[in-house]
Amino acid sequence: MKLMIVGGGEAQLNAIRYGKSLGFTIVVSDMDSNCPGAIEADVFVKASTFSYEETYLAAKKEKIDAIFTLGTDQPVLPVAKTAVALGLPTGISVDTALGVTNKRVMKPIFKDNGIPTCKFRLISTETKPEYLEDFNYPLVIKPVDSQGQRGVYKVDNWDELKGSLPDVLSFSREKNVLVEEYYESDEISVSGWVDNNKFYPLIITDRITVSNGPHIGVCISQEYPSKYLKNYEDEIISVSEKIVSSFSITNGPVYFQMLIGEEGLKVNEVAVRVGGGYEDESIPAITGVDVLKLQFELATMGKVDNSALKKYQYPSQSVGAVIFLFTKPGVVYSNGDMDIVKKIPGVISGKYILKPGREVGNRENSTARAGYIALQSKSKNELEELKKKVYSLLEVKDVNGENILCDF
After folding, report:
1. 32-80: per-residue pLDDT in tens?
2. What's domain 2-90's architecture?
3. pTM recorded for the entire structure
4. Which sequence spans correspond to the domains of the chain?
């Protein structure tokens, strides 16, 4: 069977390797012919993961039998459209795929279905400041059809907003920009699976983020279980189920980002794919549910063996975290020995991403990650001690021999 994975970045590597281990011929598509997946794939085709036309033509030419993406938002729509056009299995409809990948469509669905979210409006370069008179600064502006915190800014006044628009639009294929009232809050993420319209929660994590100047929301770790489970668990599950029904999500992985502050819970955005924070490694370790196996079953057969979903008793009693590594600006000269780190009890997996010679600028979005570590322990105290031990061994050195890893 010939299976196409749309995207050849770090987030897709485990799927590529897993598919090959099962005996599939793996076709990888990506605009970057130097992406890591290009080397690992049986067949590589250069095609924009954002483009339905390029994805469809590549899939048709290769005569694929199945197609999916994971770890990244925007390819979800081209994948769904391609699967429908070729008569291949897909867990969701094209309309659903559009709703979960374009905030111009997503946010009104929230509003129409009573899903709590921040006050929002669409603007363009022609918008006058009077159009936002009823909004309270600071505001957050973001592309309607991008991913990975690209082009997301927090602005304190109209002049800052107007000055940021060109950069925001540079990450978009549309002429509109989403404006939201900034909500002082903590972030959580909900990972789960939908099987025949039924939502199965898997893990709910605290999404620890940092800001860098006007850039906000860069995730530095996801920690399980969320500290908000005690007071918000029922509401989180209820809202998640409402999202599933409102967006007509029939089958497949889901990843929801929510905000919790003084005004309670609000939904930031939703996605129908395995998360891009190495959830394909952390979720199986924490829950025993192999989401990568389920993804392959759904893409190849149109259904999954749901026995693991039914067997899993949510919530898991495990404690864990996925830490994302970032560096100070500089040029990478060498990385430390990750094999030593991975031998520490409690380390699920880990990897350095930036190759020697890579120049690193200011941290603006998730593309600046220098690596990751997935951890698991029996308690929060044990987890904190494990973090300290791991951080003491991590290093990314610059040309001057300085360890430029950030220790948050």
Report:
1. 999 999 999 999 999 999 999 999 999 999 999 999 999 999 999 999 9
2. 3-Layer(aba) Sandwich (3.40)
3. 0.93
4. 2-90, 119-181, 185-398
